[in-house]
Automatic annotation (TrEMBL):
<dbReference type="InterPro" id="IPR016166">
    <property type="entry name" value="FAD-bd_PCMH"/>
</dbReference>
<dbReference type="InterPro" id="IPR006094">
    <property type="entry name" value="Oxid_FAD_bind_N"/>
</dbReference>
<dbReference type="Pfam" id="PF02873">
    <property type="entry name" value="MurB_C"/>
</dbReference>
<comment type="similarity">
    <text>Belongs to the MurB family.</text>
</comment>
<keyword id="KW-0133">Cell shape</keyword>
<dbReference type="GO" id="GO:0071949">
    <property type="term" value="F:FAD binding"/>
</dbReference>
<feature type="active site">
    <location>
        <position position="291"/>
    </location>
</feature>
<dbReference type="InterPro" id="IPR016167">
    <property type="entry name" value="FAD-bd_PCMH_sub1"/>
</dbReference>
<keyword id="KW-0961">Cell wall biogenesis/degradation</keyword>
<keyword id="KW-0521">NADP</keyword>
<dbReference type="Pfam" id="PF01565">
    <property type="entry name" value="FAD_binding_4"/>
</dbReference>
<dbReference type="GO" id="GO:0051301">
    <property type="term" value="P:cell division"/>
</dbReference>
<dbReference type="InterPro" id="IPR003170">
    <property type="entry name" value="MurB"/>
</dbReference>
<keyword id="KW-0560">Oxidoreductase</keyword>
<comment type="pathway">
    <text>Cell wall biogenesis; peptidoglycan biosynthesis.</text>
</comment>
<dbReference type="InterPro" id="IPR011601">
    <property type="entry name" value="MurB_C"/>
</dbReference>
<dbReference type="GO" id="GO:0071555">
    <property type="term" value="P:cell wall organization"/>
</dbReference>
Amino acid sequence: MMAAALDNGLRGELLLNESMSRHTSWRVGGPAERLYRPADIEDLCAFLQSLPAGEALYWIGLGSNLLVRDGGLRGTAIMTKGVIDHAEQCTAETIRAEAGISCAKLARFCSRAGLTGAEFLAGIPGTFGGALAMNAGAFGGETWSLLIEIETVDRHGELHRHSPEEFKVAYRSVEGPADEWFAAATLRLEVGDVEVNTQRIRELLEQRSGAQPIGLPSCGSVFRNPEGDHAARLIDSAGLKGLSIGAASVSEKHANFIINNGGATAADIESLIELVARRVHAIHGVELEQEVHIIGEPTGGGDEQ
């Protein structure tokens, strides 16, 4: 890692050859050629305007739901976590939140504002921007059911406002304007009770902790649930809990989680993802679709155990 000097009035932090293992929940990943933490949305726009037209861009939030390969990232990673993370109550029933705020923090913000409907966000281990990008959901709720306005930024640093109707939204899938990324969005909620909301969040987190391997390096759910079924059930019934490659293994607690037991490489994890999908297809005839996003340059490999 090496900090680089900034010019053109930029106010963020630019790091060179930054290991992505510092920024992913799996704790793996090779170096990004450049990683930029913008000071705010205005600074993000200025930074994008300074980039060459063909620069490869990667958007990183909390680094969950993401596998960065061991060869790292050629181009620039933009990290929104903890920097583009402002939330504000706009009207009695609406909240505007920026993409870098964590879903858990946003859920608590809405609860303290006396608004209900966003409690499920507390169970999503990522940023609001990541939730927007994949229509993340938990406990029966989905992100895009709450939205009334979306703000994006394009690679030229121009901001745009959109209505939800301009996007094609499905289960864990969102398609919108090309070369635009989520900067913020406005949610419409219902007036509720702060104490009831807080208790609901507490109950959801207890439910999540009881069912998932919280506290261990993972990405959350690896595969999307097939229609009418659950990926975890298919993996479990195929006898794959505990299956490992290198230091990566299928969780004994929740079969749709892959754990880094310490020292796993991204290649170990990717190989295990592929092996689980092949075994499930061979046994159940079901093609599991990855929920995790895999980016970067590959190197290395691992051995099945």
